[in-house]
Design goal:
Elements (H helix, E strand, L loop, with lengths): L9 H4 L3 H6 L15 H7 L3 H11 L4 H4 L5 E6 L11 H20 L2 E6 L5 H11 L5 E4 L6 H12 L4 E3 H20 L8 E5 L3 H12 L4 E6 L2 E2 L9 H9 L9 H5 L4 E4 L7 H5 L5 E5 L9 H5 L2 E6 L14 H10 L7 H15 L17 H15 L6
Parallel strand pairs: 1-2, 1-3, 3-4, 5-6, 5-8, 8-9, 9-10
Antiparallel strand pairs: 6-7
Helix pairs in contact: 6-15, 7-8, 9-10, 9-16, 10-11, 15-17, 16-17
Organism: Planobispora longispora
InterPro entries: Aminoacid_DH-like_N_sf (IPR046346), Malate_Decarboxylase (IPR051674), Malic_N_dom (IPR012301), Malic_N_dom_sf (IPR037062), Malic_NAD-bd (IPR012302), Malic_NAD-bd_bact_type (IPR045213), Malic_OxRdtase (IPR001891), NAD(P)-bd_dom_sf (IPR036291)
Pfam families: malic, Malic_M
């Protein structure tokens, strides 16, 4: 029997609405067929189930039609980079993974199973997830620290013939691109005419930079805790070395704030702070996405004194860059056509569909729709499914 530490009273915790909501977890498993009598039992289990098992053994693809596999995603974490909490371990990560599964179901009717693994070695993570994969139609990697997350995702994508998607990277990138497309439209500039500075070269910073490069942004400089990344800088890991080759055509050195002078776009994904003076030094019509949570790199009210468009990762300010706008529809679309992978084109298609939801209602406080806009998931789903077929990765 588990012993409750004397310093923690469950009764006192339950007075907090967050703890009260989480009591007993946020998920349960429910059956989709009735078992009312012996006939139902004989069909749902033995002997009827044997017919289905035999058919799947002879034709493995039937698992997608006669089990839940084609509509279920594994939400997998090792607990090393959880939200803004850092390396808190697999047990403490479970409430977040449960929450992710809840959002999959709520917004796109995708069933998801939270799995927190007690290992951090890349080989062990890859092997474990690969062995679990036959039970799922997709793998959503979550809260795995950089740079390991890049290798884990790359290797699983090579091994598996189902979608593998690290949401900390690609969900953030999709929503940021959608918001930036609309912010650029609002301020009358093409993406190709913008110079951006991205603060943070972790999972989300690298992915945002990559998707912006693919979308044709004019130039982009990325900074980490040691300043702007550039070719030849000592101590870069392979991911940052590759980023250095593809970014910073202006050859900038120094820190984030120096790079912001004359820049059109700031995207903060670092947890650091940026001064008002640095934001004021940006080009006219600046776009500021201060996305660190819960404390943005610069307070939105301060940023608005100097920027035309301001977005954050928070729900209490306009223009929330929230991954829930992307990942449910991305997986729904991929699962609907039984895609073998999620391509870069599918991510861009998701961003374009998300941006299009805003339409003619575009304004400085509305460059990205609300997660509760009922149009979002269907739009992203349709775009991703259509692009999967165009890219030749759909099986339906």
């Amino acid at each position: 029997m588990a012993v409750t530490p004397s310093s923690i009273s469950l009764e006192s915790l339950d007075l907090d609405p967050a703890f009260a909501l989480h009591r007993g977890g946020k998920l349960e498993v429910r059956s989709t067929v009735p078992v009312r009598d012996a006939d139902d039992l004989s069909l749902a289990y033995t002997p009827g189930v044997a017919k289905v098992c035999t058919a799947i053994a002879e034709e493995p693809e039937l698992v997608n039609d006669y089990t839940w596999v084609s509509n279920v995603v594994a939400v997998v974490s090792d607990g090393t980079a959880v939200l803004g909490l850092g390396d808190i371990g697999p047990a403490a990560a479970m409430p977040v993974m449960e929450g992710k599964a809840l959002l999959f179901k709520q917004f796109a009717n995708v069933d998801a199973v939270p799995i927190c693994l007690d290992c951090t070695d890349v080989d062990a993570l890859v092997e474990t997830v690969a062995r679990l994969a036959p039970s799922f139609g997709g793998i959503n990697l979550e809260d795995i620290s950089a740079p390991r997350c890049f290798e884990v995702e790359d290797r699983l994508r090579e091994l598996l013939d189902i979608p593998v998607f690290h949401d900390d990277q690609h969900g953030t990138a999709i929503v940021a691109l959608a918001a930036l497309k609309n912010a650029a439209r609002l301020t009358g500039r093409p993406l190709g005419g913008l110079r951006a500075v991205v603060a943070g070269a972790g999972a989300s910073g690298v992915a945002v930079s990559r998707i912006l490069l693919g979308a044709g942004i004019g130039d982009i400089a990325v900074s980490d805790s040691r300043g702007i990344i550039y070719e030849g800088r000592a101590g870069l890991n392979p991911v940052k070395e590759a980023l250095a080759r593809d970014t910073n055509r202006a050859g900038l050195r120094g820190g984030t704030e120096e790079a912001l002078a004359g820049a059109d776009v700031f995207i903060g994904l670092s947890g650091s702070t940026v001064s008002e003076e640095a934001i004021a030094s940006m080009a006219p019509g600046a776009i500021v996405f201060a996305l660190s949570n819960p404390t943005p790199e610069v307070h939105p009210e301060v940023a608005r004194r100097h920027a035309a468009v301001v977005a954050t990762g928070r729900s209490d300010f306009p223009n929330q860059i929230n991954n829930v706008l992307a990942f449910p529809g991305v997986f729904r679309g991929a699962l609907d056509v039984r895609a073998t992978t999620i391509t870069e084109n599918m991510k861009v298609a998701a961003a374009e569909a998300l941006a299009a939801v805003v339409g003619d209602d575009l304004s400085a406080d509305y460059v990205i729709p609300s997660p509760f806009d009922a149009r979002v998931a269907p739009a992203v789903t349709a775009a991703v499914a259509a692009q999967a077929r165009l890219d030749g990765v759909a099986r339906l």
